[in-house]
């Protein structure tokens, strides 16, 4: 089924103990759509870039058969840039700079052909813009939304309003705690369910992810990687793998949501093995499926 | 099979946001042996208490059929006491006081009848004392050892020496990182394997536990509890459930080690639901088995 992705398209400058890249392709819409493109088509992107956005990056997205009709190009402006540095312990990250540039004026316009998309993934952008997107489209089968500490702290009321329109919300553990003022993650997830989304996914980085619904809890491990080169985009790749699998199968049953969490974790694990989107470049559906099976071995046990 | 447990026997004063207890039964040998007693017999304890050790606590351990012949009573001394306070976020704990008392003079003497114990669990005590225990006994089928930051920092060489004698080491994530100076937990576990133990279990609190051997990685979730009253003893209950199951089945195959990790996680989950050892008081093998099955549901997924 068709998938609409709205979010940032960025040029990332990232330093980790293992190397560094400048103006590499990044942004939530990029990671989400690239990850989802291994599962379903069409994948449609709504975002904005400046006149300086490299043609190479456009080629990569096109090579993944991603529909870029909704990608606005503001020729007179510069693309959103983010710079970050990861420490030896990759759980610790400093943001070095954020240059919003054209992203500051981002006003998501959904092309007519996109308005009946079956699946919608709202990357981490202003909750007002997320709502503006939903106002322009017919009722989709599933809306998955992301957010971050910044919106929880600066626009809590807008976010709460937008959350009512999400079927699935994906947050990390600190965001779940901040949003609910509840340190226990299961209680926090249940509180979030009472705010609107029927499904809450809490990402925990190296500790995996937990899916919570009114009557199901599913704990997914992270793939045990010994070499993580760049954690940037892991969460968005997760979201892309998750919604990509759901759009492919058009099945939102509890059992299939669990599979989607594992596919999300799979895409996140490939993402962090290389810089920028490189971990998603040489991927194939076969490799993805092999790692899905490896996840099975990782957590499976039986009775005596 | 028989199980020998060596560690501290303590009186704990604990404050959490949900209540407080004074001079409650605690200590690594207590939690380990109480948890293991649901699986196997005899469970033998070597530890030390003062003349002030309440008879009620002795009765509880006896009610669990724990063999206390190895529990030294120094009538003129006071029992080891620990005081701690957990914050609203239970992951944050302050130690308020540590009174070693008789524990300072602890010199583990293994009664002759204990020297052929098939399974041995070395609670978190001075690595020199851990080695002293092993020197007094015939080669057991399996030695499981625990340690903590304090020994890693103050007696690294002694610990490294003792680790060579452990088949399984159980540490938490920060201890694994500190011991190996390696932030990646899988790499840290592999480094620990090169130091001696063939099996490494990394406990991650609310994020579960990971078992690593030369050629297996198993990720176990934590049981999703909404109400955690007192985290004290969770790690030791884990160790007790883990080695208790192995001693019961006398099977250290990879598949059975995985089951043991789940039984360990099960006992830890019951432990933290009440203060002190109360969570282990009303337990039964049936309740344990039901929760083992709940762990299966928690992490199980299948292919389409």
Describe the structure in your own words.
Two copies of one chain form a homodimer. Chain A is an alpha/beta fold and 304 residues long. The first copy, chain A, has one domain (3-299): UDP-N-acetylmuramoyl-L-alanine:D-glutamate ligase, CATH 3.40.1190.20. Chain A contains eleven helices and 13 strands. In chain A, the strands form two sheets. A nine-stranded mixed sheet of chain A has the order 5-4-1-8-9-10-11-12-13, with helices on both faces. Chain A has a four-stranded mixed sheet with strand order 3-2-6-7. In chain A, α1 (28-36) runs parallel beside α8 (234-249), α6 (173-180) crosses α7 (185-194) and α8 (234-249) runs antiparallel to α9 (254-271). The first copy, chain A, starts with a strand and ends in a 5-residue tail after the last helix. Chains A and B meet through α7, β13, α9 and α11 of A and α7, β13, α9 and α11 of B.
Outline of the structure:
The structure is a homodimer of 304-residue chains. By secondary structure, the first copy, chain A, is an alpha/beta fold.
């Amino acid at each position: 089924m068709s998938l609409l992705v709205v979010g940032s398209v960025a040029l990332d400058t990232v330093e980790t103990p293992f190397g560094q890249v400048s103006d590499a392709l990044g942004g939530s819409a990029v990671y989400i759509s690239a990850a989802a493109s291994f599962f379903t088509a069409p994948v449609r992107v709504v975002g904005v870039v400046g006149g300086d956005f490299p043609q190479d990056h456009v080629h990569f997205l096109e090579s993944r058969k991603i529909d870029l009709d909704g990608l606005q190009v503001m020729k007179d402006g510069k693309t959103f840039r983010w710079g970050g540095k990861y420490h030896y312990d990759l759980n610790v990250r400093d943001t070095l700079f954020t240059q919003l540039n054209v992203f500051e004026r981002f006003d998501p316009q959904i092309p007519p052909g996109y308005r009946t998309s079956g699946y919608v993934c709202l990357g981490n952008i202003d909750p007002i813009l997320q709502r503006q997107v939903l106002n322009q489209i017919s009722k989709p089968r599933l809306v998955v939304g992301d957010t971050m500490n910044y919106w929880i702290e600066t626009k809590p009321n807008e976010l709460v309003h937008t959350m009512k329109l999400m079927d699935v919300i994906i947050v990390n553990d600190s965001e779940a705690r901040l949003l609910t003022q509840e340190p226990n993650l299961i209680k926090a997830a249940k509180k979030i369910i009472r705010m609107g989304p029927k499904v809450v996914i809490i990402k925990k980085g190296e500790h995996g992810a937990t899916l919570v619904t009114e009557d199901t809890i599913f704990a997914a491990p992270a793939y045990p990687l010994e070499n993580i080169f760049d954690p940037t985009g892991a969460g968005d790749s997760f979201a892309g793998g998750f919604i990509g699998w759901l759009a492919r199968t058009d099945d939102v049953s509890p059992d299939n949501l669990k599979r989607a969490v594992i596919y999300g974790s799979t895409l996140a694990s490939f993402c962090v093995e290389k810089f920028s989107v490189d971990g998603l470049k040489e991927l194939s559906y076969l490799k993805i499926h092999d790692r899905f099976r490896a996840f099975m071995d990782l957590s499976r046990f039986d009775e005596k």
